[in-house]
Write a structure and sequence with these properties.
Layout: H1 2-22, H2 24-33, H3 38-52, H4 54-59, H5 63-66, H6 68-89, H7 95-102, H8 105-116, H9 123-139, H10 150-171, H11 182-201, E1 214-217, E2 220-223, H12 224-249, H13 252-258, H14 261-274, H15 280-297
Antiparallel strand pairs: 1-2
Helix pairs in contact: 1-12, 1-14, 2-12, 3-6, 3-11, 3-12, 6-10, 6-11, 7-10, 8-10, 8-13, 9-15, 10-12, 10-13, 12-13, 13-15
C-alpha cells in the first residue's frame, strides 16, 4: 500500500515537473524576441532560482562537506550542461531535431540502469521508452529538418547525456546514513550551475533594459519582469524540486519517460499562448508519448535477482553503481 501511494505521489510530482518545465519556452521566447540572447535568458533563469534557494542552501550547508562531488556534478550536468548544450545545438540544427536527440535521454537512462548498474528492467518500461521517443518524432515533426550539422547533433547528444546525469544523480544517495536531501542538492546545483553559466554567458554584456519593458506574446504585451518571474519561480525552482523528488519516489527510467511529456506540454502551451498551431501528426504523437509514459510508469523496475557479474552485491536503490565514486 505504501509503495503504491509513493509511486502515485511520484507520478503526480513528475507531471507537475513536466508542466513547469514545459512552460519555460513559452515565457522565454518573447524575451528572446525582445532582444535578450538565449544564453542570457538561461543565466537569468538559473541565477534567479539560485538566489531564491539560498536559504535552503544555507540550511543544508553540511552537504558541501559531505557530498561536494554530487553537488558539483548536478550543477554542471543537470543545470548548466543540459541548457547550455541545448541552446548551442539549436543555433546549428533545427529545434525539432535537437529536441528529439535531447529526449533520447530516457533510452540512455534505461541503458545506464541495464548495462552500467546491471539491474534488470521490465519489457514494459522498454516499450514505453520506444513509444515515447517515437511519439516525440511526431510531436517535433523531425522530418521537417533537412540539413544536419555534425557539431549541432553532437551538442544535442551532449544535452541528452547531461539529462541522463540529471536523472541518475537525482537518484543517488537517497538512502543510508549519507543520504543527501534532494532539495539541498537542487539548491547547490543551481548555485554551481550559475557559476558555470556566468563564465559561458558573460551576462555583463546583457541588454538589461529589456527587462524593464514588455514583450510581445501573440499580439499581447506582457511585462518582461513577469515572464522572468515565471521562468525563475515556476519553470526552474518548482520544476527542479518536484522533478528530483519524483525520481526518488519512482526510478530514473520511469521519471525520465514521464519527463518526455514536457515536449508535449510545451507544444500545447505554444499553441494556446503563442499561436503556434498543432498539426495532426503532432496531436497523434502527443497521444503516443502519453501512452508510452503510462506503460512505463505502470511497470516497476525489476529488483536484481542475483549478484553482479563482477561478483559483488547488487546496488540498492539510491546507491552508486560499482566503480563510481560514492561522492
Amino acid at each position: 500500500m505504501h509503495a503504491s501511494q509513493g509511486r502515485s505521489v511520484g507520478l503526480g510530482l513528475a507531471l507537475v515537473s513536466a508542466f513547469a518545465f514545459g512552460g519555460s519556452g513559452v515565457a522565454a521566447k518573447p524575451l528572446i524576441e525582445a532582444g535578450l540572447d538565449p544564453l542570457h535568458v538561461v543565466w537569468l533563469r538559473v541565477t534567479g532560482a539560485a538566489l531564491v534557494m539560498l536559504p535552503v542552501a544555507w540550511r543544508h550547508r553540511s552537504l558541501l562537506l559531505r557530498r561536494p562531488a554530487l553537488l558539483a556534478g548536478f550543477g554542471l550536468l543537470a543545470v548548466a550542461g543540459v541548457q547550455a548544450c541545448y541552446f548551442a545545438s539549436i543555433s546549428r540544427i533545427p529545434v525539432g531535431v535537437a529536441l528529439l536527440v535531447e529526449y533520447l535521454a530516457p533510452a540512455l537512462v534505461l541503458g545506464w540502469v541495464r548495462f552500467v548498474q546491471r539491474r534488470q528492467v521490465s519489457r514494459a518500461a522498454a516499450v514505453g521508452v520506444v513509444l515515447a521517443v517515437g511519439g516525440l518524432a511526431c510531436v517535433v515533426e523531425v522530418w521537417s529538418g533537412i540539413g544536419f550539422d555534425a557539431v549541432g547533433l553532437l551538442l544535442a547528444l551532449g544535452a541528452a547525456c547531461c539529462q541522463v546525469g540529471y536523472f541518475v544523480l537525482s537518484d543517488q544517495g537517497g538512502e543510508g546514513e549519507g543520504a543527501a536531501d534532494p532539495i539541498g542538492v537542487i539548491a547547490y546545483g543551481l548555485l554551481f550551475g550559475s557559476l558555470v553559466l556566468t563564465v559561458v554567458a558573460r551576462p555583463w554584456g546583457m541588454k538589461w533594459a529589456v527587462l524593464g519593458g514588455s514583450a510581445d506574446m501573440n499580439g499581447s504585451q506582457v511585462p518582461a519582469a513577469l515572464l522572468l518571474c515565471w521562468i525563475v519561480l515556476i519553470a526552474t525552482v518548482l520544476a527542479y524540486v518536484t522533478g528530483v523528488v519524483s525520481v526518488r519516489k519512482l526510478s530514473p527510467q520511469v521519471a525520465g519517460v514521464v519527463a518526455c511529456l514536457e515536449a508535449v506540454l510545451a507544444t500545447v502551451f505554444a499553441w494556446i499562448l503563442l499561436g503556434e498551431h498543432l498539426s495532426a501528426p503532432q496531436i497523434i504523437g502527443g497521444a503516443v508519448v502519453l501512452a508510452g509514459a503510462f506503460i512505463a510508469q505502470s511497470a516497476a523496475p525489476k529488483a536484481p535477482s542475483g549478484p553482479l557479474a563482477t561478483g559483488g552485491p547488487a546496488p540498492a536503490e539510491g546507491e552508486l553503481a560499482p566503480g563510481h565514486s560514492a561522492a
